[in-house]
Amino acid sequence: MASWCLVFFFLPALCLSSDPPNGHVMSMDTFLGLIKELESTLPDSSAQDLARLLLSAIAPPSSSPEGLSAEQASLTKALLTHKVVAVKDEGWKEEGVVLAPDGSTVALSPLLGAMLWGWNVDCKWENLQVASHNEEDGCPPSLRPSSDGRHHTSLTMSLASAFADPDVSPDAPLDFPNGCWDSVSSPKTFQLQGAPFRNELTLAYINGGLDGALLREILNNETQSMSSLLQSYYWGRPTKSAFRRQDFQGLLKEGQIAEKILKGIHCYQRCHNLRPVTEEQAISLASVVAKKFEQQFLDCPAVIPRCLWEAKPYKGTPTLLKPPLLHVYIHHTYEPSKPCVSFQDCAADMRSMQRFHQVDRGWDDIGYSFVAGSDGYLYEGRGWHWVGAHTKGHNSVGYGISFIGDFTSSVPDSRILQLVRDRLLKCAVRSGYILPNYTIQGHRQVVSTTCPGDALFQEITSWEHFTKESIG
CB neighbours of 112 closer than 8 A, spacing ≥ 6? Predict the structure, then answer.
């Protein structure tokens, strides 16, 4: 099949391809099945041993490492070989990613790399592809593109590389595109919903790096098999993986990301013979990139897009909002009355609510702008740009945010409340969707209803932007 690659400076290959999907089911279940197979044939191997073995299967020269059958090596390459592919007339597809049980998409190569070496590997660290540094330039060969244009690197190295070239403006947007699977039940191909920021820097790649860092912390404190480690992290109710951004922030020391990005900038400048920047410029750039990453990503909540909860199409033509808006209206769903604690249950609740709103009430779509599940995720309803049907008479001037469940006598878990109060709303201000002086009100304050339930309403009265203005 036709395939060719464009190699950019110090970045993985950008491949243009018309090849069909590899046919493997790209789910975390598939990866877990492979791990269990290896644990049965290599019972003395630790989680780190298996990570090294799997990564060696995708390191040049291409081969089937001892310990892997030809079939296992083929599956490993399909699961771990991360690249972004431009398919003619079809946009961008991402390979080497899997759908996790929590509904997120994860790149496995950075996950295993961070599990072994940590998220903040710098120039002085050895990597899988080399036993030592190159004596001539002091640069690990793993930081130079391999024969196919790809290399293994770390989270902060990837962030540094994106801005290390002096010709790249530090004001360039830092956006990690998400995407849609061809099937949620049997995922095989993953299509990005936008062009990648810097090829490898997709949401799935970042998710993998964060997950690997957190799994490494677990292994530092206790001994677990790889399979038990994955099961406890991705298959809980709610899953640990849903809180990866918050938990990763808990690992950080003040200024640590900027410090590591600065080292990465120096490394790439040297290894790729780029036009040097002054130390003052490098420090300033590292600070800017670190701040962008923390404020525009780590501080913000993860949102499950419509395609992943399998939303039906909008009926008719959406009416566009004109952000920034001034108002936020808080709801509970009442029905479904039980808080959902898994992606599968929350996605089913979203489909049920959309069906009720579209079929029974005759609306164009699910009414809410966003919905918070008790699984640790926000779910995209009408989103930031479409007028909703959540608060009669106020839909064009505010966003409607609902919590799944009946919160008449109880409130959502504190981490779920924080997801909306401390992450979604603050990020919405930074992104220009709501005004800095926005107001929060319960649905009952502007419409005759008991929503959002007595307990939840009492909770939001303590929120910073809550206003007591009543109906009328």
Answer: 51, 54, 55, 80, 212
What is the fold of 325-460? Lysozyme-like (3.40.80)
Query: In terms of DSSP H, where are the helices of 186-255?
Result: 203-221, 226-234, 244-249
pLDDT > 70: percent of the chain? 85
* Helix (H), strand (E), coil (C) string for 388-422: CCCCCCCCCCEEEEEECCCCCCCCCCHHHHHHHHH
Identity of the residue numbered 359: V
d(CA 219, CA 213): 10
Out of 48-57, 62-71, 214-223, 422-431, least confident range: 62-71
State how far the Cα of 132 lies from the Cα of 141, in Å rounded to an integer.
9
Domain ranges of the chain: 3-299, 325-460
Condensed to tens digits (0 to 9), the pLDDT of residues 132-161 reads: 334 344 455 444 433 333 345 688 888 888
CA 333 from centroid of its chain's CA atoms: 26
Q: What predicted TM-score, i.e. pTM, was given to this entire model? A: 0.90
Could you count the other beta carbons within 10 Å of the beta carbon of residue 437?
8
Mean pLDDT over each residue of the chain, to the nearest integer: 87
Q: Which residues contact 322 (CB under 8 A, 6 or more apart)?
A: 396
CB 229 within 8 A of CB 215: yes
Q: Which of 126, 102, 104, 119 is nearest to 214 (CA)?
A: 119
d(CA 349, CA 347): 5
Residue 186 tokens, joined? 């049997």
CB atoms within 10 A of CB 50: 21
